[in-house]
Amino acid sequence: NAGVMQNPRHLVRRRGQEARLRCSPMKGHSHVYWYRQLPEEGLKFMVYLQKENIIDESGMPKERFSAEFPKEGPSILRIQQVVRGDSAAYFCDSSPRTGRLSGELFFGEGSRLTVL
Amino acid sequence: DAKTTQPPSMDCAEGRAANLPCNHSTISGNEYVYWYRQIHSQGPQYIIHGLKNNETNEMASLIITEDRKSSTLILPHATLRDTAVYYCIGSSTGNTPLVFGKGTRLSVIA
Asked: What is the spatial distance between Cα B58 and Cα A64, in angstroms, rounded to a whole number?
């Protein structure tokens, strides 16, 4: 898990509030992937971003969820009007422009969202 | 990405070798076999990957069958800290998202 930073590590929100999760990729990495893990389940891909571009958002729910990766700063996963079903661990990882040359993707430690 | 099949759970005695199988009969020629593990609720940790040849690193060995339809991850001397969910994934080395299945829950028993 070298270098991918996610914050906050834990976030508690009430139904209807907004949640913002941040992911800072490894230095030099320009590709970011977000995954969601519901309790007792495996990781599910949500969205793949490059700097200022969404490449693949096939795993994103159609409503309330959005993601961005600006030219400067971390990638942001935003969940509007959270519901209890959004309670999960959200993981992010990063890779360099040239792909997984070393065969590794570097995952962050995740952000755990709890919706009351 | 290739679909993979793994047993849901396995037990292994501490100090013994843990052999975790994975079937990936639909893997394409340019897809590698990756293994990751997730200890408790931490972020997934890369273990090893390979294309055709067997691979070994400080964590584990990966044995891939000649037809590439299956592979085995070997932890040579399992410890209690190896208790985790192990994921086998078939994917390219490009910038494509990983597709995680349910994995194998390995329990190392003292």
From this structure: 43
Q: What is the pLDDT of residues A4-56, one digit of tens each?
A: 999 999 999 999 999 999 999 988 888 999 999 998 888 999 999 999 999 99
Q: Which of A105, A106, A109, A112 to mutate to probe the B interface, most B CBs <10 Å?
A: A105
Chain centre to alpha carbon of residue B77: 16
Which of A48, A89, A100 is nearest residue B93 as measured by Cβ atoms?
A100
Structure tokens at B60: 């584990």
Q: What percent of chain A has pLDDT over 90?
A: 78
**Which three-class secondary structure string do you get for B47-96?**
EEEECCCCEECCCCEEEECCCCCEEEEEECCCCHHHCEEEEEEEECCCCC
Q: Per-residue pLDDT tens for B44-85?
A: 999 999 999 899 999 999 999 999 999 999 999 999 999 999
* Model pLDDT for residues B16-32, shown as the tens digit of each residue: 999 999 999 888 888 89
Contact B98 A1 (CB under 8 A): no
Does the beta carbon of B105 lie under 8 angstroms from any beta carbon of chain A?
A: no
Task: Measure Cα distances from B67 to A1, A73, A103 in Å.
Answer: 32, 45, 21
Question: How far is A22 from A77, CA to CA, in rounded Å?
Answer: 6
Residue A105: list chain B partners with CB under 8 A. 46, 98
Tokens describing residue A29: 């990495």
